[in-house]
């Protein structure tokens, strides 16, 4: 998390850990509080201190110092505490304690108790591992008992049992899954999607609905004012006349009811407000100069539920409350109108005219902001009840073009069986116009407003949800209902969010996605993924990565298990026919831990198959180890076992037990290495490209080198109990090892389309 502090006379955003005692800290809604501090300026600050006090209701902060000695934390209203977060308002504070000296630092033990959870895949594999281990111990005991009964040497029988156990247990499985997930998330982070929870990577492949914000995610969030309505006239943004009192006043209001700053071409603040600051700049009006001249004496911060913001400024000795916000919210609070003929009653006819202009602007995809004001008393502390009985001054219409990549990303979603849904606080017509441009909306009836959702019961919403693509004027509470409705229909839902109020919806969604640039720390904390570029197309890329990572892990596991199956089948065969033990445990450990691990990781890094986004989302309820998966494992294992056992028999015929065991071990090792190419994809390697996975070639070559070291370097030959092989025997080993690859590739070339 970052913190906004005053450094070298300027506001700077720094990592929270760099905050020091004495820093001046600026706080806005959604910020995490990085240190303990004393308030020195307060605009209706409300803070959630539940991590400290357990009280989940937000606490209203005040500037007055508390004088009593031992007052409880929750009652120290002039102090803010590290570990809590701002739910509403703004404030400035001076840092009094950091790190372990803070109140939460003193109870740091609580913070350390959070543990990384295992992913569903890891849990499935753990279960599988446990069951496999029990089954193997059981079978090994039976084999051991039968052999003893048959009168075999106790040492031989024991060796069989141990060999079987080592062959069957996939020692590297769990670590390989973790390694592949780690590599995958690293790649995703480079592509602007930071996964906060490992298990979310698996769920990405199952997402069937993506609910996305409009502003900044589907659009560029680079707003520019295009047109202005003042004094009943629509004027282009560059045609305002600053000599005209109403037009000048309008520009002043746009700069005063505004917290953004543009300095040396750097824009700080909400893009909607930056657009207004830039409009002032077109007329040589500097926001800081204007704000110095007309001091702010009060404010009600913007919040996306209310969709309004108000400030009180001292203008020529009078106190003027300026309110700006969504037209449909503000217009109903207007009773008069400012015109060049003076103040006039705001008639029904006027309302209809302005609404018509609003519709025209919105149809062009423009975002409309409405401005109004009224005079207040000097000592009046304004609150939301005062945002009434206002005087209408004008409108601004801003353009926020769609991101160029949004259209393609939406198409990609649809072809991947994922429904893209736009959820926005903006006006319905504006939202629909943008949604149509990028392909989310096909028909007008697919757009709906938040107030309409309120009229639906949960059941009705569930019935309608599949036919709706655009939700406008939505508040964060509506978002939760939308997510739930989709989930009730059996979908896996991703939802984006940035504000503090979005946190519950982000938690409710299967994948909560927070905005890295505009998102509040609270939203980030509630999410499983953070977009560092706030871009919708990054979500789609992440889904594609998630699908590929899952498919690759699946292939890795299949590879490991088929190799182990081959080992089990070979040992069982030898035991049943009362032949000598085909492998020493050390042979199997060498394969399982060394020569098999590298191809398994290489398979996890298989380049992404572009066609993966043409498939439907994976069914979350389908188990990884399903029948078709186990079939493939069985067939792969059987083919490798056949090659291994033929080599074993050749060894027995042409040499002795030691030669036979060496031949079986070498064939098993090599055949498993070659089999890696079989598990790369459903399709043949000629279809996906023989050389496209460089890692697998590297793993193959390294595996062959390691095997040859063991076969031909005398000290290692002793350790690994191998006999000297003839050239012909080595030829057989290679010929037999490559057989499963040839058989399976031939099958794929002929039968898999
Ligand atoms: P999205 O939910 O897609 O990010 P949004 O940015 O339009 O869209 P909000 O920020 O909740 O959503 O804004 C909702 C409405 O509130 C806007 O359509 C606008 O009319 C109004 N609004 C936005 N920003 C401000 C602001 N700084 N001051 C006053 N009103 C604002």
Overview of the structural elements:
- Strands 10, 11, 14, 15, 16, 17, 18, 19 and 20 form a nine-stranded mixed sheet that branches. Strands 8-26-25-24-9-21-23-22 form an eight-stranded mixed sheet, sandwiched between helices.
- α20 packs antiparallel against α24.
- 47% of the residues lie in helices and 20% in strands.
- The longest helix is centred in the C-terminal third of the chain and has 41 residues.
- β1 and β2 form a beta hairpin.
- The chain is built from 28 helices and 26 strands.
- With 753 residues, it is α+β, with helices and mostly antiparallel strands.
- The model has no long low-confidence stretch (mean pLDDT 90).
- The structure holds adenosine-5'-triphosphate (ATP).
- The site of adenosine-5'-triphosphate (ATP) has 19 residues, from α9, β15, β16 and β19.
Keyword list:
753 residues, alpha+beta, nine-stranded mixed beta sheet, eight-stranded mixed beta sheet, 28 helices, 26 strands, 47% helix, 20% strand, binds adenosine-5'-triphosphate
Sheet-strand content, in percent, reads 15-25%
- How many strands? 26
State the major sheet. 9 strands, mixed
Helical residue percent? 40-55%
Q: Number of helical runs?
A: 28
| Shape, principal axes of CA atoms | elongated
Question: TL;DR?
Answer:
The chain has 753 residues and is of the alpha+beta class.
SSE diagram, text form:
Blueprint lengths: L1 E6 L2 E6 L8 E4 L8 E13 L1 H4 L5 E2 L18 E2 L4 E13 L5 H4 L2 H4 L7 H31 L3 H15 L4 H18 L2 E3 L2 H7 L4 E5 L10 E7 L2 E4 L8 H12 L4 E3 L2 E3 L2 H12 L4 H7 L2 E8 L4 E8 L2 E9 H4 L3 E6 L2 E4 L2 H16 L3 E10 L13 E10 L6 H10 L3 E5 L4 H11 L8 E3 H6 L2 H7 L5 E3 L3 H13 L4 E5 L5 H6 L2 E5 L5 H6 L2 E3 L4 H41 L8 H11 L1 H8 L22 H28 L2 H22 L6 H4 L5 H19 L1 H6 L7 H25 L2
Parallel strand pairs: 9-21, 9-24, 17-20, 21-23, 22-23, 24-25, 25-26
Antiparallel strand pairs: 1-2, 1-3, 3-7, 4-5, 4-6, 4-7, 8-26, 10-11, 10-20, 12-13, 14-15, 15-16, 16-19, 17-18, 19-20
């Amino acid at each position: 998390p970052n913190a906004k502090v005053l450094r070298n006379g300027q506001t700077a955003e720094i990592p929270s850990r760099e905050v020091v005692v004495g820093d001046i800290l600026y706080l806005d809604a959604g910020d995490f509080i990085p240190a303990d501090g004393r308030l020195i300026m307060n605009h209706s600050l409300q803070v959630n201190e539940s991590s400290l006090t357990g009280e989940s209701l937000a606490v209203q902060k005040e500037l007055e110092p508390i004088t009593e000695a031992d007052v409880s934390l929750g009652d120290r209203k002039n102090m803010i505490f590290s570990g809590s977060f701002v739910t509403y308002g703004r404030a400035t504070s001076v840092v009094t304690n950091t790190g372990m000296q803070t109140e939460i630092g003193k109870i740091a033990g609580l913070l350390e108790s959070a543990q990384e959870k295992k992913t569903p895949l890891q849990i499935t594999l753990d279960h599988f591992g446990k069951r496999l281990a029990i089954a193997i111990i059981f079978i090994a005991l039976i084999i051991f008992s039968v052999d003893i009964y048959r009168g075999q040497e106790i040492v031989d029988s024991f060796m069989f049992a141990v060999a079987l156990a080592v062959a069957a247990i996939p020692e590297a499985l769990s670590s390989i899954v973790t390694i592949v997930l780690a590599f995958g998330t690293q790649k995703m982070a480079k592509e602007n999607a930071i996964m906060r929870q490992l298990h979310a990577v698996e769920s990405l492949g199952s997402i069937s609905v993506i609910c996305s914000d409009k502003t900044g995610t589907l659009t560029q969030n680079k707003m520019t004012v295009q047109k202005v309505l003042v004094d009943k006239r629509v004027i282009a943004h560059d045609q305002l006349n600053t000599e005209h009192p109403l037009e000048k006043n309008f520009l002043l209001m746009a700069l005063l009811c505004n917290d953004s700053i543009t300095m040396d071409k750097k824009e700080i603040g909400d893009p909607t407000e930056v657009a207004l600051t830039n409009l002032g700049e077109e007329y040589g009006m500097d926001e800081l100069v204007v704000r110095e001249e007309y001091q702010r004496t009060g404010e009600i911060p913007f919040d996306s539920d209310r969709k309004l913001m108000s400030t009180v400024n001292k203008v020529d000795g009078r106190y003027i409350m300026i309110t700006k916000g969504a037209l449909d919210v503000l217009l109903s609070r207007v009773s008069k109108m400012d015109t060049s003929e003076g103040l006039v009653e705001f008639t029904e006819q006027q309302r209809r005219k302005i609404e018509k202009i609003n519709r025209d602007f919105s149809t062009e995809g423009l975002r409309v902001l409405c401005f109004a004001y009224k005079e207040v008393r000097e000592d009046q502390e304004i609150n939301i009840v005062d945002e009434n009985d206002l005087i209408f001054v004008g409108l601004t219409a801003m353009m926020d073009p769609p991101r160029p990549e949004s259209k393609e990303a939406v198409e990609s979603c649809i072809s991947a069986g994922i429904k893209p849904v736009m959820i926005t606080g903006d006006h319905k017509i504006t939202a629909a116009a943008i949604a149509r441009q990028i392909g989310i909306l096909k028909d007008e009836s697919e757009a709906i407003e938040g107030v309409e959702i309120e009229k639906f019961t949960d059941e009705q919403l569930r019935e309608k949800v599949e036919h709706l693509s655009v939700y406008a004027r939505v508040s964060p509470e509506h978002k939760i209902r939308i997510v739930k409705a989709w989930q009730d229909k059996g979908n896996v839902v991703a939802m984006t969010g940035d504000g503090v109020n979005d946190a519950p919806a982000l938690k409710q969604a299967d994948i909560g996605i927070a905005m890295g640039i505009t998102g509040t720390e609270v939203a980030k904390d509630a999410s499983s993924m953070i977009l560092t570029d706030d871009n919708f197309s990054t979500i789609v890329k992440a889904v594609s990565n998630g699908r590929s990572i899952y498919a690759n892990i699946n292939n890795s596991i299949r590879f490991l298990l088929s190799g182990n199956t081959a080992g089990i089948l070979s040992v069982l065969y030898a035991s049943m026919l009362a032949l000598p033990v085909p492998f020493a445990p050390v042979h199997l450990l060498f394969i399982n831990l060394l020569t098999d691990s590298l191809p398994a990781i290489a398979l996890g890094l298989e380049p992404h198959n572009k066609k993966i986004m043409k498939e439907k989302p994976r069914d979350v309820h389908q188990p990884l180890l399903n029948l078709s998966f186990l079939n493939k494992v069985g067939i792969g294992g059987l083919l490798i076992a056949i090659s291994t056992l033929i080599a074993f028999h050749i060894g027995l015929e042409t040499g002795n037990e030691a030669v036979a065991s060496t031949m079986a071990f070498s064939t098993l090792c090599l055949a498993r290495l070659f089999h890696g190419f079989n598990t790369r994809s459903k399709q043949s390697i000629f279809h996906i490209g023989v050389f496209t996975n460089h890692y697998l070639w590297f793993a193959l070559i390294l595996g062959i080198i390691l095997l040859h070291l063991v076969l031909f370097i005398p000290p290692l030959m002793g350790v690994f109990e191998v006999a000297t092989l003839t050239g012909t025997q080595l030829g057989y080993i290679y010929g037999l090892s490559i057989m499963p690859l040839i058989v399976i590739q031939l099958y794929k070339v002929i039968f898999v389309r």
